[in-house]
Structure formats: C-alpha cells, structure tokens
Amino acid sequence: MWRSLNIDLDPHCNLLNVLGQVYSDIYLKQDNRPEAMEYFDFVLSEVHGLRIRELLEHKARGGFIAGAFCLFIPDELILAAGGLPIGLCGGADLTISKAEEYLPRNICPLIKSSVGFKLAKICPYFESADFLLGETTCDGKKKAWEILNDFVPTRVVQVPHRKDDAGRGVYRAELDRLVKMLEEAGRTKISFDAVKKAIELMNNKRRALARLYETRKCQPSPISGKDALLISQVAFYDDVARFTASVDKLTGELTGRIAQGISPFAKDAPRIMLSGCPSVVPNWKLHHIIESLGAAVVVEEACTGTRYFETLVDESAADLNAQLDALAQRYLSINCSCFTPNHERTEQIIQYAQEYHADGVIYNTLQFCHTYNVEYARVEKALKEAGFPVLKIETDYTAEDAGQIQTRIEAFLERIKP
After folding, report:
1. Please, where are the H alpha helices in 299-369?
2. Which residue in 8, 228, 336, 381 has its CB near the most CB atoms, within 10 A?
C-alpha cells in the first residue's frame, strides 16, 4: 500500500517509531483514563494504517479524497459530492528542514511542517488526496498553497477578512464555485438531498462534541485535557458517523464518572483554558506540560476545540440555494483571528472562561502566526478586565523550549492557585 502511494518508506517508518514512543509516554501512562478512550487510542495507532486503507477503498469505489487544513472548508459539500474530507499532516518539527528548502525560516511552523510532510513524501493523507482545498486565512498559507500546487492539484477558497455583507457575499460566491469544482471531481450533480444528509451528519458530529465538552464544565473535569485534545484531533481524520458514535459512548461514560466523582485531577487542581492556535497531531506539548504540573486543561478555544463545533448549520433550508446560504452563515460565524474587526472572538473567549470556570487562561500562539500574536493584546486586556489571569506562550514544534515553558507555567499556576 505504501509503495502504491509513493511514500518514502524509511523516513515514514522512523516517523511512526518516534510517534509511537511519544504517544505512549504522553497518553498511555496517564492514570484513571475513561475506558472509552481505547477507541481513540486505536484510531491514532491506525492513523497511518487502516484509515488509509479505507480511503483507498473509497477511491476504488469511484469516490475522491479532498485534503484540507481549515475549518472554513465545508465538509458537507465534499461529502455531498461523493468525496471524503481528510485532514493533512502537520504539527511535527522533523519535516521543517525539508520545507525550508522552499520557505523562509521565519514563517509559522504549521505551514513549514505541512509543506515539509508533502515534500518528504511521508504523509499518506497528502499522498491519498486527489486534490487539496486551501483557503486564505493568512498570507503564509496563501503562498504555501501555490507551492503545494506544484506537487498536488490545489484549489483555494477565498475566505473574506470581514464579516459584513460584502464579506458574506464573497464567501457565498466561493461556495457556488466550490460546488462546481466538487461536482466535476465527483462526476455527479450535488443534490438537495445529498447536502441535507451531509448537513445532518456533520451537525450530529458537532452536537456530540458539544455534549462531550459540556462534561468538562464539571468540577473536577471527568477527562483530561490531553484526551479531549486527542479527540478533537481525531475528528479531522476519522469516519464521521463512527467518530460521532464513539464520542457519544465516551460522553455516556463521563456522565457516570461525574456521578461517581471520578476524575484524573485533584479537586483543587487549577482549571486552565487554552486559547489561540490549533494543536495539530502530534503537537501535544503544551497540554502535556500543563497537566504534568497538576493543572487541568478544561477547554480549548481553538480549531482543535470549540471552533470545530460551536455552531450548527440550519437544517430547515427548502432548496439547494438556501442550503448554501445556511452553510455560509454557519462557517462565517467561526471566530478565527483572520477577521477584522474581531470583537466577537474576544467576547467568546470571556464567555468560555466563565462557562468552564477557568482559574486562568493560557494564550497559545505559534511563532510567526501574526494574526493570533497581534490579537493577543486585545484579548489580554479584555481577560484582565473580566478578572481572568492570562499568560501568553509563543512556541513552535520543537522540544527545545519545553523547560522554559514549564518554568513559566509553573509560576503562573502558583499565582492563580485557588
């Protein structure tokens, strides 16, 4: 299978060996994990195995695979056209040197890591994808898609930077353009019924994640932040219906754990909200450091967190045009830092900090991620005015700064200890 995908086998094996050891150290050695986490452990163990085989079988049946990174690419339309949306690799530093043959050093590690995975031919998701669907949420990604298009067909969806009527018109027009492109890829006409089914499927997935996150509002939380992050990461790769059922099963177990007072944390563990950049597999660094120090990460305001599920698509549309309007409405409600003005995101951060009973907020930004970095000043001011202590951590995918980060977080936790 790997040879048919043109995977570079030796570095791919090295990647899996390293990933397996890191996963064992960070995840499998946790105490008092919910039993239903076994499913997500299994999915991650097969993320470069059985899932790839499923994708190839889908293609053999006439379907297609669309690779993407961003929440502004509507999975519903890909599914309605007979395709499968799949997340792409990124989040590791071992491919960055390869990417720097094409990209400047001072660009965000997510972009460099992902481009490096493609150049190194060690990501089976890149190699399985018939095409990529990029977006324009930052200047670095806009230019990275141009580079990736030299290696795999890449189409870019224009995401506006304002949520006014003009911006909504731009994104709505982009959905019309995307429909035509996906119909060509799927060799089928996207129908009202197919979109309706896909909207219901994705909304059910979002509802399941919302129910899971609701359990984390309990004190103490019945699940570690590391495990919750893992589930959010798996959401980008797993079969939608199977993932939804597995999350519901886990939430049922967590409800029982709450009733019995079972938690991986001490009752007085500081409750931390993480806000900012997404944490792509296998970037578990910040969660691991925080929870190794005895604190509990109780919510992530991130694409690998609340942004993934926070609003639903209206299911009452009467025709395809109305469905596309509803999709545009839902996707442009996502509070990404790419928008200006962006007071909605700041207000939502305060709301989450209150709802999840956070004792403090750690603002997580990747190096050279300008939108999240610049927006921090406003978020910090608003959080302090609302009475929430905040600490900014700017990092990358290496382990070199882990000691320094641990020292800073340790001091922060000491300051906010309830």
Report:
1. 306-309, 320-331, 343-355
2. 228
Structure tokens at 62: 């006439």
> Are 386 and 359 in contact, with CB atoms under 8 Å apart?
no
Q: Which residues of 59-89 are buried (b: 16+ CB within 10 A; e: fewer)?
A: beeebbbbbbbbbbbbbbbbbbbbbbbbbbb
Pair 91, 279: CB distance under 8 Å:
yes
- Cα–Cα distance measured from residue 270 to residue 152, given in angstroms and rounded to the nearest whole number: 46
DSSP string of 161-220? S--SHHHHHHHHHHHHHHHHHHHHHHTS---HHHHHHHHHHHHHHHHHHHHHHHHTTSSS
Q: Quick one: angle between helices 37-45 and 240-260, nearest 10?
A: 140
Do the beta carbons of residue 365 and residue 277 sit within 8 Å? Answer: yes
What are phi and psi for residue 253, nearest 5 degrees?
A: -65, -40
Q: Would strands 360-366 and 154-157 be described as parallel, antiparallel, or unpaired?
A: unpaired
Q: Give 161's contacts (C-beta < 8 A, 6+ positions apart).
A: 167, 338, 339, 340
**Which pLDDT score, from 0 to 100, does residue 154 have?**
97
Which residues, other chains included, contact 318 with Cβ-Cβ below 8 Å and sequence gap of 6+? none
Nearest to 76 by CA among 202, 228, 222: 202
Tokens of 153: 């067909």
DSSP run (H or E) holding 257: helix 240-260
The number of C-alpha atoms within 13 Å of 14 and in the hemisphere containing its C-beta is: 10
Q: Which residues of the chain have pLDDT under 70?
A: 418
Q: What is the full DSSP assignment across 10-32?
A: HHHHHHHHHHHHHHIIIIIT-SS
pTM: 0.96
